[in-house]
Design brief:
single chain; binds iron/sulfur cluster; two-stranded antiparallel ribbon; 15 helices; TIM Barrel; 10 strands
Length: 375
C-alpha cells in the first residue's frame, strides 16, 4: 500500500488502511499470528485501548521479534469510558498511571501515540484540556519520552468538533466514525484535515453492516466498478482526500487481505464519486424524512421501543439490509410491533408525522419473518 502523510503535525506517513485492535480473535496465538499477518501485509498504525479487554496484551506479544519497530503504536483511555480504579479521574497524575499501565500491558518502553478516548461533549473536552488535566499529563509523558504524540477519539457533535479543531493545537490525530451509510462527520473531518490534523476513520464497514448483502449497494458497487460492497465502502473512504487513513477490525486473515486489496484498487474517479454522492444523497433524503430517533413518541402504553423498531425498518427498506434488519428486530428486548393496540398516542407526538401504526404493521409483516442469527 502507498503511504500518505499522517496529517502535518507528526511527520509520520501511513498507509490508507491500518489495524484496529478491538475485535481480535479470542485465542492469543491466533491473534498474535493475525496481527503479524496484518503487519506483514503493510498495515502500520495500530489502534488499541486500555478498555479493549486483553487487546493490549495480545498486541504486545505480537510486537516481539522485531515487529515493534515496524509499527506506529497507539493506545487510549479516559475515565468516562473505563474506570480501572474507583478513584480514576481526568487529572494528569491519573493519566500518567494509565499510560504506564498500558506500556506494561503492551510490554513496550515507548508509545508512538496516546489518545484521550472518546471526547463526546464540551464538558469532556474542557476536562481533558484543563490545567493539570489529561492533556497536560500526556504532554509530560511526551517530554519524558514515554509517548511520542497525541490526539483524541470522538463521537461528539459536528458543531462541537469544529470548535475543538480550532482550539486543539496539541492534537495531531483525531479518530472519527464515518462510512458510506453515515457521512455525518464530513465537515469535521475536512476541517481537521485543513488544520494539518491526521484523520482516522473507525468503523469503515458500519459495524459489519456493509459486509451484508444489499441489492441497492450491490448495484451501486457494480456501477462504479467495485467488486463487492465492502470494497465499495473502503474505496469510498479513501476517495475522500480529507481522510488520512482508516482502521479495520481484524478477526481473520481475509479481513486483512480484502482490505489491502480494496485499498490497492485505489480511490474512485471523480465521475464515480459524483455518481455515488448523488445516489447516497437520494437515500439520505428518504432517510431524513423518516424516523430521527428523537424518542418524542415514547412512552408507548404497551412498552414498545418504537425508535428501535423504526431503525430496523430503515435498514430494511432504505438500504435493503434485509437479513441484518430481521436479526436486529428479533434481538430487540421488550414488546415488539405485534403488541401495538393502535391507540394512536405515538402518532400524535411524532415529530416527523410518521404513520407509526402502519410502520409497525410493516415490521410485523417484513421483520418478524426470515432467518435469524445473521449478523
Ligand atoms: S399506537 Fe401502538 S405503538 Fe403507538 S403508543 Fe399506541 S400501542 Fe404504542
Ligand atoms: S417521534 Fe417519530 S421520529 Fe421521533 S423517534 Fe418517535 S417515531 Fe421516530
Amino acid at each position: 500500500m502507498k503511504s500518505v502523510p499522517f496529517g502535518q503535525r507528526s511527520g509520520f506517513r501511513v498507509p490508507r488502511a491500518n489495524l484496529g485492535g478491538m475485535r481480535l480473535p479470542p485465542d492469543t496465538d491466533e491473534a498474535v499470528a493475525l496481527i503479524r499477518h496484518a503487519i506483514d501485509a503493510g498495515l502500520r498504525y495500530i489502534d488499541t485501548s486500555r478498555g479493549y479487554g486483553d487487546s493490549e496484551i495480545k498486541i504486545g506479544k505480537a510486537l516481539k521479534n522485531g515487529y515493534r519497530e515496524k509499527v506506529i503504536l497507539s493506545t487510549k483511555w479516559s475515565p468516562w469510558i473505563t474506570r480501572i480504579e474507583a478513584s480514576d479521574d481526568t487529572s494528569a497524575d491519573c493519566v500518567r498511571k494509565r499510560i504506564e499501565e498500558s506500556m506494561n500491558r503492551l510490554d513496550v518502553d515507548y508509545l508512538d501515540y496516546y489518545q484521550v478516548w472518546n471526547i463526546d461533549s464540551r464538558e469532556h473536552y474542557d476536562q481533558a484540556v484543563a490545567k493539570g488535566g489529561m492533556v497536560d499529563g500526556i504532554q509530560k509523558a511526551i517530554s519524558d519520552k514515554l509517548v511520542g504524540h497525541t490526539g483524541f477519539t470522538t463521537h461528539d457533535t459536528v458543531e462541537n468538533l469544529l470548535t475543538y479543531v480550532e482550539e486543539a493545537d496539541w492534537c495531531e490525530i483525531i479518530l472519527f466514525t464515518y462510512n458510506l451509510l453515515n457521512p455525518l462527520y464530513d465537515k469535521a473531518i475536512a476541517a481537521a484535515h485543513a488544520k494539518g490534523i491526521g484523520t482516522i476513520i473507525m468503523n469503515p464497514l458500519a459495524g459489519g453492516l456493509l459486509g451484508h448483502d444489499s441489492p441497492l449497494l450491490k448495484t451501486l458497487a457494480e456501477r462504479v466498478g467495485a467488486r463487492s460492497i465492502p470494497e465499495l465502502a473502503i474505496r469510498f473512504l479513501i476517495s475522500n482526500p480529507a481522510v488520512t487513513t482508516l482502521i479495520t477490525g481484524i478477526a481473520k486473515p481475509s479481513d486483512v487481505d480484502d482490505t489491502v486489496a480494496a485499498v490497492n484498487r485505489g480511490p474512485f474517479a471523480p465521475a464515480e464519486m459524483e455518481l455515488l454522492h448523488q445516489a447516497l444523497a437520494e437515500m439520505l433524503v428518504a432517510n431524513k424524512a423518516f424516523c430521527t430517533g428523537c424518542r418524542y413518541c415514547l412512552p408507548c402504553c404497551q412498552g414498545i421501543e418504537i425508535p428501535a423498531i423504526m431503525n430496523q425498518i430503515a435498514q430494511y427498506r432504505f438500504w435493503g439490509f434485509q437479513k441484518p434488519a430481521q436479526t436486529g428486530y428479533h434481538d430487540l428486548k421488550g414488546p415488539k410491533a405485534d403488541a401495538c393496540i393502535q391507540c394512536g398516542q405515538c402518532e400524535a407526538k411524532c415529530t416527523q408525522h410518521l404513520a407509526v401504526m402502519d410502520e409497525l404493521k410493516y415490521a410485523v409483516q417484513n421483520l418478524a419473518t426470515g432467518e435469524f442469527g445473521v449478523r
